Amino acid sequence: MTIRVTVWNEFRHEKDASHAASTIYPNGLHEPIASHLRQQGLEVRIATLDEPEHGLTDEVLANTDVMTWWGHMAHAEVSDAVVEKVQQRVLEGMGLIVLHSGHHSKLFKRLMGTTGNLKWREADERERIWIVEPGHPIAEGLGEYITLEAEEMYGERFDIPAPDELVFVSWFQGGEIFRSGCCWYRGRGRIFYFRPGHESYPTYHNQDVLKVIYNAVRWAAPHTIAATPVVNVKVPLETITPKESAAD
Amino acid sequence: MTIRVTVWNEFRHEKDASHAASTIYPNGLHEPIASHLRQQGLEVRIATLDEPEHGLTDEVLANTDVMTWWGHMAHAEVSDAVVEKVQQRVLEGMGLIVLHSGHHSKLFKRLMGTTGNLKWREADERERIWIVEPGHPIAEGLGEYITLEAEEMYGERFDIPAPDELVFVSWFQGGEIFRSGCCWYRGRGRIFYFRPGHESYPTYHNQDVLKVIYNAVRWAAPHTIAATPVVNVKVPLETITPKESAAD
Amino acid sequence: MTIRVTVWNEFRHEKDASHAASTIYPNGLHEPIASHLRQQGLEVRIATLDEPEHGLTDEVLANTDVMTWWGHMAHAEVSDAVVEKVQQRVLEGMGLIVLHSGHHSKLFKRLMGTTGNLKWREADERERIWIVEPGHPIAEGLGEYITLEAEEMYGERFDIPAPDELVFVSWFQGGEIFRSGCCWYRGRGRIFYFRPGHESYPTYHNQDVLKVIYNAVRWAAPHTIAATPVVNVKVPLETITPKESAAD
Amino acid sequence: MTIRVTVWNEFRHEKDASHAASTIYPNGLHEPIASHLRQQGLEVRIATLDEPEHGLTDEVLANTDVMTWWGHMAHAEVSDAVVEKVQQRVLEGMGLIVLHSGHHSKLFKRLMGTTGNLKWREADERERIWIVEPGHPIAEGLGEYITLEAEEMYGERFDIPAPDELVFVSWFQGGEIFRSGCCWYRGRGRIFYFRPGHESYPTYHNQDVLKVIYNAVRWAAPHTIAATPVVNVKVPLETITPKESAAD
User: Fold this and answer.
1) How many other C-beta atoms can be found within 10 angstroms of the C-beta atom of residue D114?
2) What is the ipTM of this complex?
3) Could you tell me the fold of the domain covering C4-116+178-245?
4) What is the CATH code for B4-245?
5) From the CA of A3, how many Å to the nearest CA of chain B?
6) In order along chain B (248 residues), what is the average pLDDT of each group of 10 residues?
7) Of 3.90.550.10, 3.40.50.300, 3.40.50.880, 3.40.440.10, which CATH number belongs to D4-115+177-245?
8) Are A128 and D175 in contact (CB < 8 Å)?
9) Do A135 and C187 touch (CB under 8 A)?
10) Cα D97 to Cα D68: distance, rounded to the nearest angstrom
11) Of D87, D175, D231, the CB nearest to C237
């Protein structure tokens, strides 16, 4: 079965001709991501903030196995109703890949239960992403680390639940470290947070970064999607006998 | 330092003279809990749903190290503003012990990011709570299991994030099992969910149940309470040098 | 790439004509397991205790992606040299599925660092294996639980490291529970322990049990196999400057 | 109850007058550790490799709540019998703090089940130990990070099971990162690995490093020490009835 991916992008910085992002990602930073996933044979759809329902209609959600999410300046404009629907879909099994500044999205904060706060700095500094779990499916095909010559810094303390699987930790030239590749299981869904991707750097043109996103999509793809209901089990599976018939 | 505990109770069932809870817990089910914690030397305050701000003013929150939470029929009446404040306090370090039907409280669902859904049955059946991590501080002073001769059944699948530490698993006579003692770390705070405590059974008069709650309060007590801010670290800790000066 | 599986079996009970196992599994309990995996298209090899090197030569290990392990009465006869080699191969990435009484094998105890001790009883009692993580790959295609009408009981406390992922918990008619489907990551390898499979019951003829083993093999298959060496990194990746040149 | 600590040290480098350790730690690197723990009111005993039974007699083990372990050049000289006894004691509940090069000790490798391999470099470089879980008991009283102006580098991939709680991650000037404060639960025991402490640097005179060791000792202290036996539970807790009497 072909994995069906929805690449969601806020798509605002790139439309501002005065912003570096408009040059680096003239068609939106979702384009290199979507293009790479299509080349790998996945079925890819794009959705953006300024579409009706942010492009995330019930029909789109019903046909999405894994969603990627990039947002930054307009987190507050994402409607609560859409966030609620996407969260429910993740709990039912849809995979979710949260990218970079998506750490402060309503969606990520609701799924984590924490603030997503962190330290940051824009100083064109080197990031080295170390693979601490080389056997993990998301690390497939990578070397010992990925070097990005210039990126925004994110530093600890990153206010997240301890990841269920910690795959990457970043080193920054200015002296900080960051848990930059984190897996969580929520409901039936799998969530991966991947740190790099500031809009003013060509990070989503980096082949290793794209490989990680592809690996993460495959890791997060569900085998089935189903809600976990509340059930009143009136008829027990076993006969319930009063105390005196038991051994203790 | 004496641990300061706020025992929060919805306190509705017990005021209904036609409900078994009014006989089992004439002064509210918070009373045996509060009384036990006081006997152990803790400083205990009580707060209930029908007080102004549900009894959870800024002053109360500022002076609470650990909160216990029992709610059932009126989860929807808890104000979002209070839930928001309590959640923030947990992330800053306040311990939280969620009891029984509190699994569906707004507070628990927000901190977990999941629905808290589960199976249930009222059939006066036996529950045996097995200790699967006997070395855990919350298991101090317990035997191999706790038997409750009659309780409501809660069954899997329980829609929670996999606990960071799973201390208890319950066996039910009718054929189900349940992860009934679960620890999570969120922000700087520690959260413990403890399953038993249906309002129509005398569970909170059981000495082992009270011992677990006391152990959990001690385990969840913070060493410091502090927010995790967003910080723009303009001055780096280390000198940032351009690419050509580095080895790779 | 076809997954290459080695199904390892102690293969002693089945050769004893007075033992029930000789009737239930006339060709060894490895046969229904191997047969099922072959039907699913995997490449399967069998190895048993009484072969030279227990059937686990360097050549076999070099060509195994995932190994399943069943042992019981003769754990002590497995040579330390073979255990050492298999452990190293797991750390390099080979998947390992440990079945039932394999909890006391030298191999499992070395990989866990614990005793593997537990409670047990042979009383032809019902086991109900509850799926607590229905979204997990090992739960694919299963319902809410698997019922085995008669099995040996294993009860907590099971002396294992808390599993990295807990997929199944068993209910037993006699009053116990057990963490019966447990995942661990060790080195680059993935390990799954699956409880059922006492030799005097036809458990390995049960289709759901076989499905779990197949799912587990797929989950445990590595993407690459490689050792983690000790490396003296004499030339640093970055220029190391003395204290006075840094900001702090 | 006063916590009873045994500070174990290989104590070889310090006796070599040509080695820097003999100047930095003239009485052994165990001395500043033991001295600090005593000042905090703990009951401290010292044991070293060259004593009979390495100073770890049954009597010493029976009276130890938490052990700290530093070894480096003579791991192979530690007798298997002593390692076996100490491992069993940890599984029964004794806390264990493994320091620096103890990552390659027989004891640590047996408890982890992995090789403990890593990268290393001696280049007098700066280490900055970031606290990623500030709410953890082992982080009590620390700031955001600890700076050590000169230390040996340890780098990933560190071949350990993913820690149950990751408290510290180190940044190194030469470009590496390392999971440098790791908690595991094994049996009833608690294990903490703490990275810094190369013998040619005055690391164990650093007040923050000593504070971490003290915090870790308190965190690892057991509430009870007891083995987990194998038990044949011949008499079930509940009446076992044949299939036809049950609901399914």
Assistant:
1) 23
2) 0.95
3) Rossmann fold (3.40.50)
4) 3.40.50.880
5) 24
6) 96 96 97 98 98 98 98 98 98 98 98 98 97 97 98 98 98 98 98 98 98 98 95 94 57
7) 3.40.50.880
8) yes
9) yes
10) 4
11) D175
